Amino acid sequence: MKIKGTMQNKDCKKFFLTNIIIFCLHILFHAPIYADWWHNNSFIMGGRPAGMGGAYTGIGTGAAGIYYNPGGMGFSPDLQLSVSTTNYYTSTIKQQGYLSDSSTGFELGDADLLNGYFGGIFRLDTETPIYLAFAIYNKDYVNIDNVVNSFSNDGKKSTRFVQKTNSTENEYAFGAAVRITPKWSIGASIAFFDMKYSEVQNANIVGGPFDDPDNPGSQLYTYEMWNYTSSFFVRGIEGGLGIAYRPNDYISFGLSGKYKFIMAQDSDTTFVDNQVITDTNFVPLGPDSTYPYDQFVNLTTTKEDKKPFGELPYMIRLGMALFPFEFQTFTADIAYYSANQANNPFYQTKEVYDYFLGSETVFFEKVALRLGYFTNNWTGDPKVKDQFINVNFIGYTVGIAYINKNSTYGFTWMHQQSKPGAQYQLEESLASSGKNPSVTWTTNQFALIITGEM
């Protein structure tokens, strides 16, 4: 692949007049992207990489190299600005089976207008190619506000569950790369990250009516109301290293790694539980009832942890890119994410591997078709109750871009579908014959992409 030279002054002025305003508007109205704590690839970072399914470690050029492979930035254009904006996001979760009745179910839907990634890179005026880059992105964002009402067919149980969750991970990253030889480039990145998570859950569970053993002919209900709040923050520095090797114009390789150093953190949780027996008017009978049911009011458990995380996951990526023709690119990546160390099992994650495949075909030097395939495997602990488990996604991306001299305007669609085996891990008392209800989770994202080179 050839490195493009500096644009003429006329082209520079045209680029700034047509594109820099959009870049500024993106910063002014920047909103975080959607993802979640238990998936590493809910959003594919960058412009060109997003269309190729995130298989970009073997290339790593441009500001997106800060995330994928800082070493690849040494083969970038002399000056480049890039922005990817996710205009629209949808998520649909369908659950079949609840409240000891496999015939019940519900559907959750969510949609948001979101923004994505902004970055730039430029080459210093030195004999040895040296590049400096910056990027601003939000790797994780969740904003859930759901109310679920469920009823069993036999009329014995009903629930009302409210969940409000917010999670963000902002990153402000800088990178540098040196092309030490025509075939080798090394790079490093440093990012300041701020992770925040907060959740409020409220449940009302009614069981009955049941026969009153103390008063034949009368009926009773069981009633439980609980409230759970949890929050944490983690701040620190993420360091990254990368190397890129291009032995010829037809193939390239990349290897990169990232590690988070925790500088400050804290967390707290509170659980308040009420569980009583009531008459038909929902008046509590008190603890003297002979009905075999454990009763309590405002049973409160609180916990504050100044060091909720011993270590955050680190990432290692290995990638390869093939350029069999001037108009054709094929890429493949494998990424390893380590397990984290968390005192709260709800935040504990396991090690996983994810895989990425991508291609780009340029027609008539004007239109680029980008295709991608990737995995987004679930990293949570399946023993933790009251959460989705085994939600392993298969993802597909389709992108199309128009190349106008040194500016590229593109559109990317990303679709994810959960594989069979996704479930909702219920408490034993609510599971149907000891089985968890099945879950189908689908997401779609639509992104606009603008890249300019000079």
List the helices and strands and how they pair.
Layout: H1 9-28, H2 48-51, H3 65-68, E1 79-98, E2 101-112, E3 117-123, E4 130-151, E5 157-178, E6 184-211, E7 219-248, E8 251-278, E9 296-305, E10 309-311, E11 315-325, E12 328-337, E13 341-342, E14 352-363, E15 367-376, E16 387-389, E17 393-404, E18 407-418, E19 423-425, E20 438-453
Antiparallel strand pairs: 1-2, 1-3, 1-20, 3-4, 4-5, 5-6, 6-7, 7-8, 8-9, 8-11, 10-13, 11-12, 12-14, 14-15, 15-17, 16-19, 17-18, 18-20
Description:
There is one protein chain. With 454 residues, the chain is mainly β. The chain has one domain (9-453): Beta Barrel (Porin), CATH 2.40.160.60. Helix content is 6%, strand content 60%. β4 and β5 form a beta hairpin.
Unreliable runs, pLDDT <50, ≥5 residues?
Answer: 1-35
Number of strands: 20
Strand order in the sheet with the most strands: 1-3-4-5-6-7-8-11-12-14-15-17-18-20
Number of helices: 3
- Total count of domains: 1
CATH topology descriptor:
Porin
Q: Give the distance, in angstroms, between the N- and C-terminal Cα atoms.
A: 17 Å
Helix content percent band? under 10%
Look at the helices and sheets and give the structural class. mainly beta
Quaternary state reads single chain
Which CATH first-tier class would you pick? Mainly Beta
The average pLDDT score comes to: 82
Shape label = elongated
Strand content: over 45%
**Could you give me the name of the CATH homologous superfamily?**
Outer membrane protein transport protein (OMPP1/FadL/TodX)
User: Helices and strands, in N-to-C order?
Assistant: HHHEEEEEEEEEEEEEEEEEEEE
Gyration radius (Cα, Å) is: 26 Å
Largest sheet: 14 strands, antiparallel, barrel
CATH architecture: Beta Barrel
